[in-house]
Amino acid sequence: MLYQYLIKLTLVLTFIFLFSPFFSEGQDLKPATVNNIKQNGSIQWDHSSRRRISSPNFARYSGYGRIVQLPDESLLAVYEADGNIVAAKSQNLGDSWSEPIVIAAAKEGVKMCVPDLIKLDDQRILAFYNARPYDISPSRRFGIHLRQSRDGGKSWEAEQILYQAGHQFENGCWEPSAIQLPNGEIQLFFANEGPYTKSNEQNISMLRSVDHGASWSKTPSVVSFRPGKRDGMPVPLLLKNKKEIVLAIEDNALLTFKPYILRNTLQKNWANTISAKSPDRSYALHDPIANEIYAGAPYIRQLSTGETILSYQSTEGRTNKMDYADMKVLIGNERAMNFKNRSVPFVIPKNKSCLWNSVTVLSDDTILAITSTNAYSDQTEVWMIKGKFLQDTENQGTKDQEKTEKKFTMLAYLNKEAGHTH
User: Fold this and answer.
1) Over residues 230-255, mean pLDDT
2) Which of 6, 7, 39, 142 is 20 to 30 A (C-alpha) from 190?
């Protein structure tokens, strides 16, 4: 009947009006599955645990900190410091940190930037980093480099150059990060605009090593590519199920960058490039962010209990410029879906920033949030803070899941009705 149709149409138009800031034409936002949600809970940050990792006497700019825990429970951190890659250690779970040692020094016309760490099954440490020329010349190229340590970061072997892109900024490669698979293979992911010399496009590329980093594939595989856009800043995670790899990336399909999750099974093992519309690419957040709000540079880890932890830098609730972004941390389920329950580890003034963040999960499931911030001095420094995941009661989790299911059921109903003609 006409009045029933008008009521349904009103509901549809109301829904579209309320939620239109989050959706745009051609957008591929896909609500994550609501099955087996385990992440109901929150992270409680201990502000008395906040510590500076970088040395104020070593560099004016220190940033992009990453931490791994070693077998003796000590912590090894790497970060960039005025164009050098340095390492520092903590013997007391981050309460204090050693003075840094240089892993990879800047070279003439070239800074070494954005390091990341991986601890292998034989306890070797691999430190990957990005060579970035600032004195532009065809003789100096953007590259992905590696140094290895066999003694927990005390000494480092000769530098390996794994990949080189162009010599100009717009044709560079960026932000390496790696995982090791159960069979021993190492997969190294990085953002790559080297192939796109005639456009501003960028893909996620991957190199493989089957001999613990001694040698690497010569030609990178293209893991993901969205034509006309810039997939970037990949961080891989092998899930606890040992069957699936997820990759947190920033994806600017929606006007500005947002966190997305790419996924592949070990069986598929990145056999095909993940396209814009692939079911293996999904919007990471349970609750969408308005398209114009910046939310980039994601990082992902997993607790022993299965919950996944996602961080990113964002201007939500702040001036919408990256210079004022702060760190957000969310909780996802055991398959890296439904990221929600946002928290802010570092409380900073609105005219300061927390950028190039990471998270580390210690052996007792303590969560470390690591940031580069100018909030605590007149320099940019690397800081950390500790947090604990607090599980909600089972009843509360069930109620939250029921609410989520009802929301998506209503969304499906409205979409179906909107498609009817009379």
Assistant:
1) 96
2) 39
